[in-house]
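Changelog excerpt

This revision adds worked examples to the README so contributors can see how folded entries look when concatenated. The first example is reproduced verbatim below.
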Amino acid sequence: MWKKKRAKRTRVTGFDSDNSSGDFSEANHKVAEMLDLDPHQSDRTGKHNGETEIQENGIKRHRTSLPAPMFSRNDFSVWSILKKCIGLELSKITMPIVFNEPLSFLQRITEYMEHIYLINKACSHADPLERMQAVAAFAVSAVASQWERTGKPFNPLLGETYELTREDLGFRFISEQVSHHPPISAFYSEGLNKDFIFHGSIYPKLKFWGKSIEAEPRGTITLELLKHNEAYTWTNPTCCVHNVIIGKLWLEQYGTVEIVNHSTGDKCVLNFKPCGLFGKELHRVEGHIQDKNRKKLCVIYGKWTECLWCTDPTTYETYKKNEKRGGEQKKTKPSEDVIKSENDEADDMPEVQDTVQFIPGSKLLWRINCRPPNSSQMYNFTSFAVSLNELEKGMEAILAPTDCRLRPDIRNMENGNMDVASKEKERLEEKQRAARKERAKDEVEWHTRWFHQGTNPYTGTSDWLYSGGYFDRNFSDCPDIY
């Protein structure tokens, strides 16, 4: 059991790290060399890369790099495992650690909060249409961090938790793995100014289809804007990773996302387009906002990997008609090379088309954040993702003993100790199986700690709801899962 030291108050903020010192490790030197960077070069804040520094407002900046570079996957083949799993549910399959990224799925969910300024913008708008536009942008931004993230997050252990408080961004967040079979992750976040509540439960159903792995989202996401007495609900699009057997890994998201404002009856319908035969639609998102009488109020377009714009329906339709006329004049037959590519063993990633074509008069709703310059050596993490597993000095004394940051397999993988990480992963999985057998033997049911199963008050569907009390920090009855 962890000791509850109270002598020194420490906020679990996801920054203020003492893990990343100014002295670079050998691993960080290698990353710098691969990127042709001077390892001792200071960034624009006047501190070495990866070093924690204090900003003018007194809040310490979170780390900017991982302790060790990403492990190469080139010498490993997943085919020996996946060839027996075509068409099956993958959550029950044990995957080699080399195909993971050093984050738990609970931490991956937390990445929804990277663009929280969009929630703040929605709270500030008096016009319900502008609020819906901001919420739609937030829903798209929530999946943007998955771009080029082909590593699999660790499956959370039953009872595993993750918390994050970001005073600089104005929110706190708690999640718990509430079920193992099927795997269900529940989360709850609230504004520190009591202006919003964001919660949901996620059940990603993974399937292997020969050359690709598809993650079909299950579960409802709910955003409540308390000042406006409004609630919005939606479900994320389907995510698909191509070429898991041969070729370069690439990712796309597709499907229809419907965001419903349960107070006004307004609805936003977003179509995440599949790449198509020639890749013209890769990453594209198009949709509209309609009122309760189904009248189109505005059109939304862009890419989930780049930006999102909105314009009025008339302007959009006129632009599309003109674009179609121009396109018909340029139509040509597909080349032999393109036709041949359909039969290649690998699903070649279509060439990414030019940036989103701006329609005059459009309003920018959201633009993706730039990634760190060494992101490719850090599992393509965003700056926000890099900070999520940071274990600050003094944090261990007040964290729940079930927090992801304390998982030894993830911690060792992050530090570049792959052999130890693999052994720890096997040990934790075996410990979980043994605990499940012991409960079955004693006819004891598992009880979640921070969430309970109930009904979503807006959709009427089954959901996992926050029970409260986590931030009182009474962790005496937390399970020993590590």
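The second example, added in the same revision:
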Amino acid sequence: MASFRAFWNGPMGPKTTHFWGPVANWGFVVAGLADMNKPPEMISGNMTGAMCIYSALFMRFAWMVQPRNYLLFACHASNETVQLYQFSRWARAEGPLSAKKEEASSQ
């Protein structure tokens, strides 16, 4: 019971934004995972790139803030992984790595 009370009243506990911010940000990860079933033509390269930059910046923030926010770091590391995968799907289908553009330029 004492360890639960320490967590509940601690600087990273559910009474703080250090807890609820990362919990809410897991929605980005869930949305990215759900988008894996969609065709790559529906992916926005600009938005996915922005999400990659956003997650990278907030991973650094989570690491540098005191007390260190491991929950936020894990959330943004997961989102970075998902978004980089989505960005690679977009790049192969629509972006600079697409076969469509190579075929069009050779004709």
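Reviewer comment on example two: The mean pLDDT is 87. The helical segments are 2-9, 17-34, 45-64, 70-93, 99-106.
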